Amino acid sequence: MRYDLIVIGAGAAGLSAAVAGALHGTVALVEAEALGGGYVRRDVPAAFWHRVAGPLYGARCLLDGPMRPGDELTFAALAAQRDAAVRAWRVRAERILAEMGVEILYGRGRVLAPGLVGVDGGAGEILLVGENIIVATGTYCRSGCGGGRMVALEEALALRALPCSAVVAGSDAPARTLALVLAVWGIPVHLVAEGEGVAAVRRLLEGAGVRVHAGAVTGICEDEAGVTVRLPDGTCLRADVAVVDVPGVPATAGLGLEELGVAVAPGGTIAVNARMETSVPGVFAAGRAAGAPSTQTAVWEGLVAAYNACGWPLVLRAEAAADMDITPFDAAGFYGIVSVDFGMPS
Questions:
Q1: What pLDDT does 346 receive?
Q2: Minimal CA–CA distance to 298: which of 267, 265, 268, 331?
Q3: pLDDT of the residue at 335
Q4: What are the pLDDT digits (tens) for 161-212?
Q5: Domain count of the chain?
Q6: Does residue 67 sit within a domain?
Q7: What φ, ψ does residue 291 adopt, rounded to 5°?
Q8: 209 and 335 share one domain
Q9: Residue 265 lies in a domain
Q10: Which of 88, 57, 50, 89 is CA-nearest to residue 73?
């Protein structure tokens, strides 16, 4: 099968690239698991909790106390709504991609040569031929985090039951939102955050019952009864679980990149220039696999990679990309598609 553009990975950068590429030619989108990647595992659930956190806190104030698991509005019911929002996002995403003519192929993709991708969907490998290739495979959670009392932030955003208490370590909006939601339900919560905005975060959250600590976590000890989180000043925080926002590992192993001559850093990050070109002509990379620090930047990188792959020269201005709030389907703004509730395509 022959395409103008083949995109490997359907996270924030991959979706943005596929949508932008479909404006200019035929596109194949290869995904190993499910549409959305880390964007749906992290940003969509975080947006859901952000949307409900305010009303929940308002209800707590009216009731003069935290929400309780026995109340009519239960955490489990909201978790089910969150899961439904994720499913709805994927259904709508598939519909929009189909309407734009993007062909979705589920399986593990490998770059066999410039312009040639192999996709193993479990029933044997099929070959795709394309003018250009964009690698946007994102990241995966580091080993050693999750499965016990140390929980990755992505996993915590998908919780179906409340812990007895929690320490949330993270400085971005999803971590703050999670801490607030847990506190609204009466769960003792400590938030450990870095950066200049910690004082403002403390003013916003401590009224809701979140204990905010400035600094970085220096150590976490886990035992059968819980976890102990150490801070730089020697403070030890004890809780049922520790939620850690750890950087992901670029999911670039096994793609055939280094065999092809694509420059890859020791940590797995793909080296690109401002046009998202790799060291091999015809192979582009975007998103967290190429070192993007945020979802917004990943979306812009996918857009820039697609336009350059389709012969429309664009250069990414990283400082502007970081400040622009955007979701993957905003890349099709020229096509008349906008993003609404929870970042879902309409």
A1: 39
A2: 331
A3: 34
A4: 899 999 999 888 889 999 998 998 889 999 999 888 888 889 888 888 999 9
A5: 2
A6: no
A7: 95, 10
A8: no
A9: yes
A10: 57
Cα 191–Cα 159–Cα 216 angle in degrees, nearest 5 = 25
Whether residues 179 and 287 fall in one domain: no
Question: What separation in angstroms does the CA of 213 have from each of 169, 185, 194, 299, 345?
Answer: 9, 20, 9, 32, 37
In this structure, are residues 151 and 220 in contact, taking their beta carbons and an 8 Å threshold? no
Least confident of 3-17, 187-201, 305-319: 305-319
Q: Each residue of 61-77: b (16+ CB within 10 Å) or e?
A: eeeeebbeeeeeeebee
Tokens of 164: 């007895």
- Pair 287, 273: CB distance under 8 Å: no
Residue pointed to by tokens 């150490």: 230
Please indicate, yes or no, whether residues 179 and 197 belong to a single structural domain of this protein.
yes
Summarised one tens digit per residue, pLDDT across range 117-164 is: 999 988 889 999 999 999 999 998 765 555 578 998 888 988 888 999
Q: What is the mean pLDDT of residues 288-301?
A: 89
Which band of pLDDT confidence, cut at 50, 70 and 90, is reported for residue 58?
low
Looking at the structure, tell me whether residues 132 and 274 fall in a common domain.
Answer: yes
Kindly give the residue spans of alpha helices, DSSP state H, lying in the chain.
12-22, 37-38, 44-63, 75-99, 153-156, 173-184, 198-205, 257-260, 295-309, 318-323
Tokens found for residue 240: 């049922």
The answer for residues whose C-beta is within 8 angstroms of residue 153's C-beta and 6 or more apart is 42, 168, 170, 174, 175, 178, 243, 244, 245, 246
CATH number of the domain to which 216 belongs:
3.50.50.60
**pLDDT at residue number 185:** 86
pLDDT of residue 107: 95
| Same domain as 255, residue 238 | no
- Tokens 């690109």 map to which residue? 272
Q: Is 148 exposed, middle or buried (0-12, 13-18, 19+ CB in 10 A)?
A: exposed
Q: How far apart are CA 87 and CA 39, in angstroms?
A: 13
Q: Are residues 229 and 106 in the same domain?
A: no
Q: Are 45 and 52 in contact (CB under 8 A)?
A: no
Q: What's the domain range around 308?
A: 2-40+80-141+248-345
What single letter denotes the amino acid at residue 242? Answer: A
* Average pLDDT over all residues of the chain: 84
Going along 158-303, which residue ranges are E strands? 166-169, 189-193, 210-214, 219-223, 226-230, 236-239, 241-244, 249-250, 283-285
